[in-house]
Design brief:
- The protein is α+β, with helices and mostly antiparallel strands.
- The protein is built from four helices and eleven strands.
- The strands form two sheets. The protein has an eight-stranded antiparallel sheet. A three-stranded antiparallel sheet has the order 1-2-3.
């Protein structure tokens, strides 16, 4: 291969490298603008990055791409008697099941925030949630006069098969759960 051929190969590699970088930068910019960019409803269930409530333990393993090590839960939720932790595209997910069986259904999912998501305030997270689900409603605690005063706001999300909730711990994490699975 001559010098001209080597230059062409080098230029092609540089173009591919920077072209891929532009896509990654675009994706980062989108997630910075929307800290909940990977939140959706799939088949009537709340989901984060294709990991949906109601999916079986085996299905979750297929989606995440690893075998999950199930262990006793930490008592964070009555629906997460058994939990497994996995990394998914740089974020730590904790999946909660009521039983350790392969067919057990995902009832509780915590997404530990990283990067730009940590910078989002409770109000910004609530606004992002409303951007995805305009009919989402804040579940107001008795002693809390406003959303700004709620340190761990919970929202009910319509459009799911059965009532499902989103709870924020701003600058820390988000929980997706079936009704009755958030303390």
């Amino acid at each position: 291969m001559g010098t001209r051929g080597l230059r062409w190969v080098a230029a092609s590699l540089v173009a591919l490298w920077f072209g891929g970088g532009d896509a990654a930068l675009g994706q980062q910019a989108a997630s910075a603008a929307d800290p909940l960019a990977k939140l959706s409803i799939q088949k009537g269930e709340l989901a984060w990055d294709d990991v949906a409530l109601g999916m079986s333990l085996v299905h979750a393993e297929r989606v995440i791409g690893v075998t999950l090590a199930i262990d006793h839960g930490t008592g964070e939720s009555p629906c997460a008697t058994w939990t497994a932790t996995a990394d998914r595209e740089g974020l730590q997910l904790t999946l909660g099941f009521e039983t350790p069986k392969p067919g057990a259904k995902l009832a509780w999912l915590r997404v530990r925030f990283e990067g730009d998501q940590i910078l989002a305030s409770g109000r910004q997270l609530a606004d992002a949630l409303k951007g995805h689900f305009p009919d989402a409603t804040w579940v107001q605690p008795k002693e809390t006069p406003s959303l700004e005063d709620d340190l761990r706001p919970v929202f009910s999300v319509p459009g799911t098969k059965e009532p499902e909730l989103v709870q924020f711990a701003p600058r820390e994490s988000m929980v997706l759960a079936r009704n009755g699975c958030i303390r």
